[in-house]
Each structure stands twice: as C-alpha cells, then as structure tokens.
Automatic annotation (TrEMBL):
Residue stretches making up the Integrase catalytic domain: 1-70
Coiled coil: none
Phylogenetic lineage: unclassified sequences, metagenomes, ecological metagenomes
Gene Ontology process terms (BP): DNA integration
A GO term, aspect molecular function: nucleic acid binding
Entries under InterPro entries matching the protein: Integrase_cat-core (IPR001584), RNaseH-like_sf (IPR012337), RNaseH_sf (IPR036397), Transposase_IS3/IS150/IS904 (IPR050900)
Name recorded for this polypeptide: Integrase, catalytic core domain protein
One family name in Pfam for this protein: rve_3
Length: 74
C-alpha cells in the first residue's frame, strides 16, 4: 500500500511506532553522532521487540506474541 506525501494519517500504525520509538529511545539521549544514533537505534529495536509490551498484542512483547502464534499454529 502506498501512502500519499504529507499524509501521516494514511500510515497511522507506523507513525505511532515512530513517535514511540523516538520518545523512548532517541529524544532522551540528546545530541549524538551518526554512529551513536545507529547504536541506540539497533538497541532500541531489540528492546522494542523483546521488552516493551503492547496493548494491541494482549500486553505481550512482539517476540512473545510471535512465539505464541508459532506454537498455536503447529
């Protein structure tokens, strides 16, 4: 699905993810170099998927939810 330019409402799920990610991992760090930013982003993605629970995933982390889905599919 393509989204229109300057229409964040077309892609609300990713806009929400970006906002939470920036708030939780980037803005609290202050100014950083590119390499520092890259390290924080890498660590943040792991943390977001393995530590942060999500109400839309029955208050599980994405990793826990995916594992549950794998187990019930087999």
């Amino acid at each position: 699905m393509a989204t229109r330019k300057r229409r964040p409402e077309d892609n609300g799920m990713m806009e929400s993810w970006n906002g939470h990610f920036k708030q939780d991992y980037l803005w609290i760090q202050g100014p950083m170099t590119f390499l520092e930013t890259r390290q924080i982003v890498d660590e943040g993605v792991v943390g977001y998927n393995t530590q942060r629970t999500h109400s839309s995933l029955e208050y599980l982390t994405p990793s826990e939810y995916a594992e549950r889905k794998r187990r019930t599919a087999n």
